[in-house]
Write a structure and sequence with these properties.
Length: about 260
């Protein structure tokens, strides 16, 4: 029995020494301790060699596969100018602003005392689209070796959108703002000879953005003509949900 214990102690000492020298905690290190020891994180091992040298491992030794020295990363990018990166970060936050406003509009038109499911569904769809655009730009910045900087989103001054005309006028302004930012990002990318960033903006966003501006402008024109007539507003809302909303965003089908 004593011989077995001595062999076990020698094995454990060699194991700890190996871990100490390689600077990595290997997965098999866990097998030497009970679950209770690991949970308490207070287990300590002292291995005494013939020369009275001791090695002590505290609770940090229970971190499996964790290197003692973490590598320091270095940002690597190919012609991704700081000005282009800053412009794209501004674009991300502009997209998130539109995303936030559209969610506010959808919530308003979904209220019981407003009850315009077409407007609610349409703005939920726009809300999702802006969210996807923001993430698309954010992921591109990361791919180019840049850093994404998110800013606080300023909420709408008045979350009571009153009527569809007021909401769609605001939405048109948002789409124009997003488009202008995209044009500015593209101009900065071209100034610094960043063909990839320019192509990303032009082919990935501009055509869809022009379609959104055109669509919002048409809705504003229609709503300006019908005024505040309840029946006309109902017909507009019905046409909106039937012809301009994807099935996944149709709140009537979800309910």
């Amino acid at each position: 029995m004593l011989g077995t214990l001595m062999q076990g102690r020698k094995y454990l000492c060699n194991l700890i020494d190996d871990v100490y020298k390689t600077k990595y905690y290997r997965s098999y290190f866990r097998s030497g301790f009970s679950n209770a020891d690991i949970q308490r994180r207070t287990f300590r091992v002292t291995c005494t060699r013939g020369n009275s040298e001791s090695i002590s491992l505290g609770s940090n030794a229970l971190c499996i596969d964790k290197p003692l020295e973490w590598p320091t990363g270095k940002r690597t990018s190919f012609k991704f100018h700081a000005e282009t990166e800053a412009a794209m970060n501004e674009q991300i936050n502009t997209e998130f602003k539109a995303f936030y406003y559209y969610l506010s509009m959808a919530a308003y038109f979904g209220r019981v005392d407003v009850a315009l499911p077409g407007c609610e569904s349409y703005f939920m769809q726009m809300h999702q689209e802006e969210h996807e655009h923001a993430l698309k730009v954010l992921n591109y910045v990361k791919m180019r070796g840049g850093q994404a900087h998110l800013c606080p989103i300023v909420p709408p001054i008045d979350p009571d959108w009153k009527c569809p005309l007021y909401a769609f006028k605001t939405a048109l302004g948002l789409e124009i703002e997003v488009s202008e930012k995209l044009v500015a990002v593209n101009a900065i990318a071209e100034k610094h000879g960043d063909l990839n960033a320019s192509d990303f903006i032009v082919t990935g966003f501009m055509e869809d953005q022009m379609k959104s501006v055109n669509e919002m402008a048409r809705f504003v024109t229609i709503l300006s003509g019908i005024g505040d007539q309840a029946l006309a507003r109902f017909i507009f809302d019905k046409d909106l949900i039937e012809n301009h909303v994807l099935a996944d965003f149709n709140v009537l089908k979800k309910k």
